[in-house]
Design brief:
The protein is α/β, with parallel strands linked by helices. The chain is about 20% helix and about 30% strand. The chain has 2 domains: about 1-110 and about 225-295, FAD/NAD(P)-binding domain; about 115-220, 3-Layer(bba) Sandwich (FAD/NAD(P)-binding domain), CATH 3.50.50.60. The strands form 5 sheets. Strands 1, 2, 3, 4, 5, 6 and 19 form a 7-stranded mixed beta sheet that branches. Strands 8-15-9-10-11 form a 5-stranded parallel beta sheet. A 3-stranded antiparallel beta sheet has the order 12-13-14. The mean pLDDT is about 95.
Length: about 300
């Protein structure tokens, strides 16, 4: 039996594993090798790795963790979890069975792409979700904004830090009363029809075609698809969730423990703010919280 079983081996899971291994605790990482950021060609704002492939950063991080003798990495998909603190059992799709005293859920979330041809092909390249992460690379181009909720309107001001040519696409949704005039007053063009297709060459956007047949030239688009957890293990054990505008996340306490004793969570699964740096912070906090929960304080 391991001290900790980590389900999900991207940034949050690996940082937690590093803390636990350095505390000389036994830890096994179950991972499908399909991180959410696998579509991105480069990561930014990661000190020492700016512009590097997320896969390359993760490869180096995994090697660092596995240099410790108490850490193991298993490529497998966890499909079921049961038990209680000090006696959890996790089963995998290939029939594996793993036991541990504690569990960290760090399997992240999955983006639900809109049914727009070309969207998936451009995701992580010229269809971006974070201007701080990818805005610099498309700065001064014509940037579109795909409206999904009233929160999207914040970007009609924010994106002006990167470009003076912005267009908001409502894609058939209605803006709140009075917001259309505010958007236009900011110098942002507005299209209210639905997008039929994103025009691109191997993921490099050059425009969109509206259902009306009109084509609009664009260099990039900011979009915020709704998200769902990448697995359902938190449902198996009844962990409480909260909801954000973009989707659900697990409720955690100051130690990053979920509502289920002995089960912790970190990364995109454990909050509404998503970035590599945030995942690293969450992994550190969860790793320390997990270790503290294993100590006999008497």
């Amino acid at each position: 039996m391991d001290d900790v079983l980590i389900i999900g081996g991207s940034f949050a899971g690996l940082v937690a594993a590093s803390h636990l291994a350095r505390a000389r605790r036994t830890v096994t990482i179950l991972d499908t090798n399909e991180p959410r950021n696998r579509f991105a060609k480069a990561a930014h704002n990661v000190l020492g790795f700016d512009g590097s492939s997320p896969f390359e950063i993760r490869r180096k991080a995994l090697a660092d963790v596995l240099a410790y003798p108490t850490a193991k990495h298993v490529v497998a998909e966890a499909t079921g979890i049961g038990g209680v603190a000090d006696d959890f059992v996790v089963r995998t799709l290939d029939g594996g069975v793993f036991s541990a005293r504690r569990v960290l859920l760090s399997y992240g979330v999955r983006d639900q792409f809109p049914a727009i041809p070309g969207f998936a092909e451009c995701w992580g390249n010229t269809v971006i979700h974070c201007p701080y992460c990818h805005g610099y690379e498309v700065a001064d181009g014509h940037i579109g904004l795909l409206y999904s909720s009233p929160a999207s309107l914040y970007a009609t001001s924010l994106l002006k830090e990167w470009s003076g040519k912005l267009t908001l696409f409502t894609n058939g949704l209605d803006l709140p009363v009075g917001e259309e005039a505010k958007v236009e007053a900011r110098g942002v063009r507005l299209y209210e029809g639905r997008i039929a297709e994103i025009l691109h060459d191997s993921g490099k956007m050059h425009g969109v075609r509206m259902q009306s047949g009109k084509e609009v030239e664009l260099d990039a688009m900011l979009a915020h698809p709704r998200i769902v957890p990448s697995a359902r293990l938190h449902e198996d054990i009844g962990a409480q969730i909260e909801d954000s505008l973009l989707g659900p996340f697990l409720r955690i306490d100051e130690e990053f423990q979920t509502s289920v004793p002995g089960v912790f969570a970190a990364g995109d699964l454990a909050g509404p703010r998503h970035s590599i740096n945030n995942a690293v912070y969450g992994g550190m906090m969860a790793g320390v919280g997990l270790h503290r929960s294993l100590i006999d304080w008497t």
